Batch of 2 targets.
Target 1
Amino acid sequence: MCIFCQIVKKEKGADIVFESERVVAFRDINPKAPTHILVVPKKHIGTINDMTEDDRELVGDMVFSAKIIAKEHKIDDGYKLAFNVGSKGGQIIDHIHLHLLGGKN
Ligand code: 5GP
Ligand code: ZN
């Protein structure tokens, strides 16, 4: 099982800040900004390239969740959302995740 599936199933610890039926979000262990949260679907999908038609709503749910989390963390005046795709795109963990970065001036 992949590391993010383990976090989703609570078999591995993480600082979870948001959870819904389909999505979980937790603080990045190696933050690259004052607020750095990873928004992760509970369903295992390797990369954005592995998305199917059925996943369109789920990925929309990830973005919508990020919007809510940004407001909760008071960074909604400006933040970055990013998907790394594949190793050439900087993706290390093979389970899709949306980086939510903010808190810089
Ligand atoms: P990627 O480079 O795949 O887009 O991003 C993976 C992110 O996951 C990295 O920013 C890395 O710091 C974070 N990460 C890796 N392993 C863990 C972990 O076990 N727990 C948490 N909370 N974050 C992790
Ligand atoms: Zn997984």
Note: Residues 5 and 25 are 12 Å apart (CA to CA).
Target 2
Amino acid sequence: MKDRIKIAIQKNGRLSSESLSLLKKCGVEFTESKNMLFIKSTNMPVDLLMVRDDDIPRLVSQKIADLGIVGENVVMEKQLSDKELEINQKLKLGFSKCRLSFAKPKGFELDDLNNLKIATSYPEIVKDYLVTKNINAEIIEIHGSVELTPFVNISDIIVDLVSTGATLESNNLVEFDNVMESEAILISSRNTSNEKYQWIEKIISRISSVIEAKDSKYIMFNADAKDVEGLIQMLPAAESPTVIPLADKAKVAIHSVCREDIFWKTIESLKSAGASSILVLPIEKLAN
Ligand code: PRT
Ligand code: ZN
């Protein structure tokens, strides 16, 4: 295939290693090297473009890249600032989860946000939020060290990304409202040639198999045949389970794919309801 598929991923940052590892799990083989901006797959007609995350939406919209992996927060900011951007949002990828939140200095009392100065790296998302809520405040755009701005009289409050909350805490800031939740997503350009399209669909379908498998588990256990109905009800998001007779006629083995993680609480409840020899296994790929 002369027209190879281009996938834009973040070169250096929070999305990089999980993006590369996701593509590897999808069977895209390549040799990574820290400073390479362009990585050719050795087994598929795929090239990786290693770029800054902020450039990914535009590269995809302009069809320089066919697919991209980027945070929802970046996609939304770029789409709000450029209405011409043509992007298909394909899949939530389940990593780099965070939220874009308001935060104020500890002890700072506020009734509403009117007339405040708000520092953020996401001016368009914040502007959109303020317009929707009919709030009249000033947005100060700043890239980096946003947490510092209330303490050097640049702003009153901030809007920034939060995951654990440790950065806000260590800067004496308190989160008080949430603007959006975000995670890494797969985006694609709107139209592509037929030959490419099939490969792109194949890659998207592989990515969705890997994502679905990540949250799913395979569970096996033994139980008295009379307890089966009750036990099956306890399984989270279970596919119709397989019930296998055992040598001991009163007993059966139950096998099932659960489309959610299985926590200790469920295992303990199954045990109390008569399940024994409980095995929970990770699933690598899950194709429908
Ligand atoms: O160089 P390049 O432009 O490519 O990278 P970047 O510096 O713009 O982005 P990067 O690598 O920092 O983040 C990439 C994406 O990861 C973001 O766009 C989000 O979608 C996602 N993400 C997930 C986060 C966080 N979690 C996160 N915690 N991005 C940034 N943070 C920062 C936040 O800004 C704050 O400074 O981490 C700090 C807060 O973290 P906690 O855990 O202390 O709350
Ligand atoms: Zn960036």
Note: The CA atoms of residues 30 and 42 lie 5 Å apart.
